[in-house]
Design brief:
Layout: H1 27-32, H2 40-53, H3 65-72, H4 76-88, E1 92-95, E2 99-102, H5 107-128, H6 134-150, H7 155-172, H8 176-196, H9 203-218, H10 221-240, H11 249-262
Antiparallel strand pairs: 1-2
Helix pairs in contact: 2-4, 3-4, 5-7, 5-8, 5-10, 6-7, 6-9, 7-8, 9-10
Length: 263
Amino acid sequence: MVATEDMRSLDRNVNDPTAKGKGPPDAAASRSAPRRSVSRTEAVHEALRQAIIEQRLTPGAKLPEDALGDAFGTSRTIAREALGRLAVEGLVELKPNRGASVANPSLDEGRDVFVVRRGLERTVAEALAGRLTPEAVAELRALVERERAASGHNEAESIRLAGEFHLSLARLTDNALLIRYVTEVVSRCSLILAMYGRPHSAECGVSEHFAIIDALVEGDAARAATLMDEHLQHVASRALLEGKAGNDLRDILAPYAARMRDL
């Protein structure tokens, strides 16, 4: 059986590859789990990660190590380590002689990432079917309820919590390699959704998350994997069918060109 402590491993050292991409600890977990000191690198990494996903740091923005060190009151070495972890997650680009900048993935890259993510998360669903403890199920449901509460008035938080649901499932597999890969693709997808996502009701995603939990509890691996795959297809189609207006000159001028043809 999967122990509920797996859901509460929120304070692991950043050197643990399964710890990358955690969200901030929720209140319930903080009360029930023993606290460990969080390294400065981990704190800077998580702060930058959220700032990028929330687009406070916009795609292409430069991230000088000295400026980051000044902002967080840390050394350039810690800033460099945090940037390295973000680069592994696909949120930061590191270029020789040009330094670090926030990643700026194209729409096509976004679609490719979702293809990879679907395969990985089908595996997660198959691995967890029938193996969740009641405590883990309760915590997953509570996380989705928080996602529901954020939907409609805090889009950035809704995206973060939706990603955290998928990260929580991955951590419950206890498969370090699978956790690492899922963490990387979920981080990239969160940035892509923030960049290209079109306004829509998050209620669809919340309902799909609850349906996935139900299938896992029932122990139906095939149904859980299918629901996960369909859910990620829906997320991609809702967000990635087209880029945001204004990104492409041809799209901007298309209506004006049509008027010219009508003259």
